Amino acid sequence: MPRAFWSVPMVTLGEFDALEGAKATCVSEYYAYQEVDIFGPHLLRLSAVCGKTFLSARVISGPLCPEYKERMKAVVARVLASNESNEESVLMLDPLAGGIAGMSFCLEDILARGEKRRFCIILTHPQSAELVRQWPLVSLFLNILLEEWSTATKKRLALEYSIFPDLERCREEARKRSMRSLMCLISQNTESEEEAFKRVHSFFERFFPALFGVEPLRVTDSVLEPTSVNDIKQRLEVELPLVNIVGIDLDSPPGEKGCIAVGNGRILAVGEKFVVKPLAVWLLEFMQKHIGGLQETEMLLSALLSGIQILVYGCDSVQCANLALSLSQILPRPLRRLAVFAEEYLMPYENRIISFSERLCQRQQLT
Q1: Number of domains comprising the chain
Q2: What is the model's pLDDT at position 80?
Q3: What is residue 367's predicted lDDT score, i.e. its pLDDT?
Q4: What is the pLDDT, as a whole number, of residue 104?
Q5: Given a cut of 80, is residue 322 above it in pLDDT?
Q6: Would you tell me how many other CB atoms lie within 10 Å of the CB of residue 115?
Q7: Which tops the pLDDT comparison, 219 or 159?
Q8: Among the listed ranges 43-47, 184-188, 221-225, 313-317, which one has the minimum average pLDDT value?
Q9: Does residue 237 lie within any of the structural domains?
Q10: Same-domain check for residues 131 and 225
Q11: SS3 23
């Protein structure tokens, strides 16, 4: 199954490099956006990231997968061509991406020609009308982020002026290799690039649900009061350190058969092979193979709809998980208390549907 490009809101960071031209560097995607639809898919899928990533409750951040990177280079070039400073922004429509909001900005880098480097931050949203509606808040949040980045790079510039012994020679040498990354420039104090990226990821973990979640913030007036801006800044200062982040290598993901449990019974598919079979297909196959299958099917559906706990186990844990996910799909999301690849039994008040891990299934077969 091909990746579902543009199906969720995403933020891509881009840069104009004098040697390489426009390029897209990394992306944060709001994978939990698929849960906005109360009867939407329970098996969440990734769109754009690959390799070593940071994962939290609703957002995943990391390098762009090659096919997405090629598509985004053209978008980055369009945004950078449309903007000349962080005082300007651009809203565009795209037949594939839906809505595109871009904001270009410059950051100080002592090693760059003119001590300025051009970057852009691009938000794509599958529902262009929603992006336009939320644009005042989107631009507010992004300007808060860019203000923080600008402050960090100015402090770095002042420090490096005092510590670089031969500035012109350093600049000449810098032109022979790739420039420092954005994360290096915006790192604060003794932060590593990885720690800076975690901080950026934490921002988007709060940004996406606040603006495009089930109950998003709304602007009542066209002009935001300074008190509102200060409230948002204070809220971010409190919430960002609380974001729980896990590092995951998507090239060799943890979990089972390309699936990762991301909490509250939610499953994130990091591979492209896991396809959930519709419940109707499961039931038809069962009734064809078993005498009295209709009566047993009625019992199963009655238990499912009345809240009786259902345990799914067998010799193939992947098929068990597939059936458990199919059963959960007919329930509204608030009732989907589901666990797949479980390592132990869970009480009915914790989970209504449980499928067990391959290791546990094999152990039960031996006993």
Answers
A1: 2
A2: 78
A3: 46
A4: 87
A5: yes
A6: 14
A7: 159
A8: 221-225
A9: yes
A10: yes
A11: strand
Residue 245 and residue 284 in one domain: no
* Helix, strand, coil fractions of the chain, as percent rounded to 5: 45, 20, 35
- Which residue range forms the structural domain that includes residue 170? 10-249
300 and 224 together in one domain: no
Q: How many residues does the chain have?
A: 367
Instruction: Say yes or no: 233 and 286 in one domain.
Output: no
Nearest to residue 10, comparing CAs of 68, 74, 93? 68
Dihedral of alpha carbons 205, 59, 137, 88, sign: positive
Q: Are residues 355 and 313 in contact, defined by beta-carbon separation less than 8 angstroms?
A: yes
> What element of type H or E holds 209?
helix 193-212
DSSP bridge pairs for 54: 61, 247
Backbone phi and psi for residue 293, each to the nearest 5 degrees, phi listed first: -65, -30
For tokens 């594939």, the residue is 96
Give the three-state DSSP class for 274.
coil
Question: Which segments of 43-97 are extended strands (E)?
Answer: 43-45, 52-55, 60-63, 89-94
pTM passes above 0.85 = no
Q: What is the pLDDT of residue 4?
A: 66
